Amino acid sequence: MIYTVTLNPSIDYIVRLESLALGSVNRMESDDKYAGGKGINVSRILKRLEIENTATGFIGGFTGRFVKDGLVEEGIATHFVEVADDTRINVKIKAGEETEINGAGPAISTEKLAELESILAGLTSQDTVVFAGSAPRSLGNTVYNTLIPIAKKAGAEVVCDFEGQTLLDSLAHEPLLVKPNNHELADIFGVELNSLADIEKYAREILVKGAKNVIISMAGDGALLVTPEAAYFAKPIKGQVKNSVGAGDSMVAGFTGEFVKSGDPVEALKWGVACGTATTFSDDLATAEFIKETYEKVEVEKL
Questions:
Q1: Residue 300 and residue 271 in contact, taking contact as beta carbons nearer than 8 Å
Q2: Closest CA to 189 of 209, 159, 170
C-alpha cells in the first residue's frame, strides 16, 4: 500500500478574475474549491491511475470535513488524525499573474502527534510512504526527522518531496525518490547550473548523500532522472500552461505509483512526466484520460 502524509492539508480555494485591484472591491468570474496539500494531491493522482492508496496526516473542523469528504467521494481511503483546530484554507488568485495566500494551519498537540506516529509504526515492508510539503507552524519541518525514521523502522520505503534543509535532512533516511527542481538544486549547493551535465553532476551529489533516485524537474525544459546506474532525460512536451498547483505532486505520484508496481525507473519517469505535464495543462489535477494521452507523447533518452 502507498500512504501519503500531509501534515498541513488545506482547502485550495481558486478564485478567477480579470484583474486584481488592491484596496478595492473585486468581483470574481468563477471559483473552485479542492482538497489540497501536497500529499493529498499525490493521493488524488494515484487514484486516477487506479493505484490504491491511503491519505493520512492531521485534519480538523468543518474545513477538514470538506477535505476528507472530497477524498472519500473520489474513492480514496483515509486514516487522518482528528485535531481541534480547523484545517487551513489556501486562496489562489488567478488574475493574469497568480497570487497565493496560504493559511498557517492548526496547532498540533503532543498527543495528536503520537497518534500519527502510531499509524506510521504500524506499516510494513510492503508499504511506501510519501512525505510531502510543510508541517504546521506548531510542529516545524524538523518533525520529519522523527516521523520518517518511524516509517523506515517499520520496514516501509519513503518518498520525500521537500525543499532546502528539510530535503537535505531526509537524505539520511535513504528515500526511494526526491524531486527538487533545478532552481532548488542550485540553491542547495550554492551554484549556477548551466547545462544538463551540471544538473546531473549535482543530482549525483544528492545520490551520494543517500537518495536512491533523483528527479530534477525543469518546468518547460523537461526533467532529468538520475539513478546510481544511469541518467535519463525526458524531453519537454509543448502545450498551454494553465496551472502550476500540483504539477510537482503529480510527477511524484506518477513515478511512485509505477515504481512500486514495476520497479522500472525509466517507466516510472515516463508516468511521472505524463502526470506532471498533464496537470500543468489542466485547470485542476489532470484526469486519467488526459494523463494517458500525455503518456503517449513522453520521450526519454539515456544520457
A1: no
A2: 209
Rounded Cα gap, residues 132 and 40, in angstroms: 9
Residue 116: closest CA among 139, 147, 137, 140: 147
Picking from 162, 168, 172, the residue whose alpha carbon sits closest to that of residue 134 is 162
Q: What is the spatial order of strands in the sheet that 300-302 belongs to?
A: 77-83, 53-60, 2-6, 128-132, 157-161, 177-178, 214-217, 223-226, 231-234, 300-302
Three-state DSSP at 227 gives: coil
Contacts for 299 with CB less than 8 Å, ≥ 6 apart: 234, 235
Helix axes 247-262, 265-280, angle to 10 degrees: 150
Query: Strand pairing partners for 16?
Result: 30, 94
Q: Which residue has the cell 505532486?
A: 249
Helix axis angle for 288-295 and 265-280, nearest 10°, is: 120
| 132 vs 222: CA distance, rounded Å | 22
Cα–Cα distance list, 144 to 50, 104, 170, 201 (Å): 28, 18, 8, 27
Q: Over the stretch 141-200, which tens digit does the pLDDT of each residue have?
A: 999 999 999 999 999 999 999 988 999 999 999 999 999 999 999 999 989 898 899 999
Q: How far apart are CA 240 and CA 34, in angstroms?
A: 22
Q: Mind telling me the catalytic residues? A: 249
Residue 49's contacts (CB-CB under 8 Å, 6 or more residues apart) are 253, 254, 257, 271, 275, 288, 291
> Using alpha carbons only, what angle is made at residue 2 by residues 183 and 202, rounded to the nearest 5 degrees?
25
CA distance 80 to 68: 8
Percent of the chain with pLDDT over 70: 100
Spatial contact of 216 and 204, defined as CB atoms under 8 Å apart: no
